Amino acid sequence: MNDDKAEKIVGTGPEDGPAQVSSTEDGPAAPGWLEPEVDKAFATLGLPADKLRSLRDSYIDCLASAPRGQDLDVAHDACRRGLLTALHSAFPLDDDRQQAFRLALEALESRLTADL
After folding, report:
1. Burial, 77: exposed, middle or buried (Cβ in 10 Å; 0-12, 13-18, 19+)?
2. Which residue of 14, 35, 73, 101 shows the fewest CB atoms closer than 10 Å?
């Protein structure tokens, strides 16, 4: 083939943007209501949202990645414990606020389990 007539291949790597997910690909997924509910729970902490962004995102990813073949409650408990440990390390919270946050997370995890 002549080089000047060869087609240029475009879109060959991740730097070109996200690929379209096919119907046969498995990927983490969470219901649309989850993120706003997680945001509400995080808002009760009274901490700057930008400082909590990575913890929030990691928690949502963990919930969305929970293996459907396992006990979801066990997987969600692990996500919550990991979040609370990281949060406690990064921000000093009083016991009442931490307890309220934990209860809010447990409630949304119960709803998530029921929806799946």
Report:
1. middle
2. 14
